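User: I'm writing a tutorial on reading structure tokens. Could you give me a worked example: one chain, its sequence, then its tokens, then a sentence or two explaining what the tokens reveal?
Assistant: Sure. Here is the example chain.
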Amino acid sequence: MEKNLKEKLLPFILTIIVIVLDQITKALVVSFIPPYKIGAQFLGDFLRLIHVYNPGVAFSIGASWPDLLRRIFFSLMPLIFLAIVIVVYMKSNDFTKLQRWAIAGIVGGGIGNLIDRIFRPEGVVDFIDVKFYGLFGMERWPTFNVADSAVVVCGILLIVSFIAMTIKDIKSKKEESKEV
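And here are its predicted structure tokens:
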């Protein structure tokens, strides 16, 4: 296998890890915590494991839409988005190693939640509930899961890496213009 293809495929190990961890943790929550009940608390009530379903997307957006529309839209749109991301990822040679791993983590999280949207009529299983101390008017952060965490953490890494590359390019261009 050509070296470039190996470098592109290797980060998909993270995709698989995220999907497997996400689905295992959701299966455990569904098996051991009754819906809409707290299963465990840590550090007082700072961190709670709770079994909830999110029929919408981030922050329950679209949760009140008609069931058929919500299921089709929230399954089809992420599927199209993930397909585009993977095609761009595979065709481009411009991503750094960090960016490739970050994209792979985002894809894993997207697929993890997409599996729930397709196979769980109740919605995506969320179970990590963190106290937010009234910041932004929220006593608790919206409940999330492993897939959501992967998307957010890897998304932040990707954005930071793009910003760092842009700053580096700007500095490089300034250096070049000083030499002329």
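What the tokens reveal: The helical segments are 3-9, 12-32, 67-91, 97-119, 146-179. DSSP finds five helices and three strands in the chain.
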